[in-house]
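Fill in residues.
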């Protein structure tokens, strides 16, 4: 797919490079030509100097054929303006804006513009490690029937197979992280203390799963 990235700071340059490496076509817009130095000489995408919400620059970047646009400049107002132009003028299917003020992020989310609030996201991730009780649910579907949670494997589960954590129709471990590397587990994978389990489960099964994890008990 073709992706337009507006802003070539640390986030934009990393995003653009990753997308190109994944085989997508990418055009990056930044008002500072020197910002493209972050991309390195091997970058295979297009670079365009100019203002991100300038329609001529957006069209030069291929906005009319773009499947997605990421507005990741260092200005909230600019990012929202770029996102709205992409969504409302060019009907880009997937649009996301980086927002520094979490209060604005909430407003634009309600308007249907997906946002990533940098400060609140980072704060939340740190808090989840400091206060594990805040990690109750990472994602829930609109019907609240399916949730995704992240749980550290306690010592009492070490040496047991990951499949023992599953419960048909209720709980499924979809990935296991170990030493910073995640994998989709085979049923006979033996878990270790400190592994991170990424678990899909029914919305009404969280409390029972947490209790079973804490107690180290198997299925009834």
């Amino acid at each position: 797919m073709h992706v337009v990235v507006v802003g070539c700071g640390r986030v934009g340059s990393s995003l653009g490079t990753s997308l190109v490496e994944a085989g997508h076509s990418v055009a990056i817009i930044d008002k500072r030509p020197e910002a493209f130095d972050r991309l390195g000489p091997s970058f295979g995408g297009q670079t365009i100097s100019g203002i991100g919400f300038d329609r001529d620059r957006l069209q030069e970047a291929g906005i009319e054929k773009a499947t997605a646009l990421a507005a990741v400049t260092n200005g909230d107002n600019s990012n929202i303006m770029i996102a709205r132009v992409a969504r409302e003028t060019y009907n880009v299917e997937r649009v996301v804006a980086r927002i520094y003020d979490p209060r604005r992020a909430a407003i634009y989310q309600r308007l249907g513009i997906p946002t990533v609030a940098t400060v609140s996201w980072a704060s939340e991730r740190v808090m989840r490690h400091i206060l594990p009780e805040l990690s109750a649910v990472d994602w829930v579907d609109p019907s609240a029937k399916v949730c995704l949670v992240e749980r550290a494997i306690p010592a009492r589960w070490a040496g047991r197979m990951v499949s023992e954590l599953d419960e048909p129709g209720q709980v499924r471990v979809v990935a296991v992280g170990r030493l910073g590397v995640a994998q989709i587990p085979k049923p006979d994978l033996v878990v270790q203390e400190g592994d991170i389990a990424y678990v899909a489960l029914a919305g009404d099964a969280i409390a029972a799963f947490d209790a079973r994890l804490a107690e180290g008990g198997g299925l009834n």
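Residues 124 and 134 are 9 Å apart (CA to CA).
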